[in-house]
Amino acid sequence: MENKVMDALLSRRSCRSYTGEMPTSEELKAILNAGLYAPSGKNNQTSVTVCVTDKAVRDKLSCLNAEVLGRDGDPFYGAPAVIAVLGDSTCPLYVQDGSLVMQNLMLASYSLGLATCWINRAYEVFRSLEGKKIKQGWKIPEQYEGIAFCIVGHPSGAMDEAKPRRSGRIIFV
């Protein structure tokens, strides 16, 4: 069965090595627009995305993320663009809603020939004192919590093939 959506769902992979070349503003706008169309509980549409292309801000977020990990290095793997997804914690499904935004961002990027990776620790980053200051500078209300970071860029090499799927994970009743 040939289907572009199914192909994207089955062939998209996470990337952990980037060329450093910035996606175009048109590509980033298209990706961010796709995030706006993610399903949300009761169609509340409360998730917020912040596209970071400023290297100093990107590097600051990377350092804060690495601090949470207790490591040195770049947890963003050299990706030039970082999309922070935040959700309104007063909404009961904010984590699920933000997660669906992340999926749309990753699939849209893949459809444009770009690579992504879901990076955790946005919750901890935006709860830190420095993270709260960054969020305030972006004029994002305090009740918004970090869901994840979607790193975006051009892959530095060929993407890995899918690993075999573990059996026993589908049950029909």
From TrEMBL:
UniProt keywords, alphabetically: Oxidoreductase
Residue span, Nitroreductase domain: 10-63, 77-154
InterPro entries: Nitroreductase, Nitroreductase-like
Superkingdom to which the source organism belongs: Bacteria
GO MF term list: oxidoreductase activity
Pfam family, one: Nitroreductase
Similarity annotation: Belongs to the nitroreductase family.
PANTHER family: NAD(P)H NITROREDUCTASE YDGI-RELATED, NADH DEHYDROGENASE_NAD(P)H NITROREDUCTASE XCC3605-RELATED
Protein name: Nitroreductase
Source species: Treponema parvum
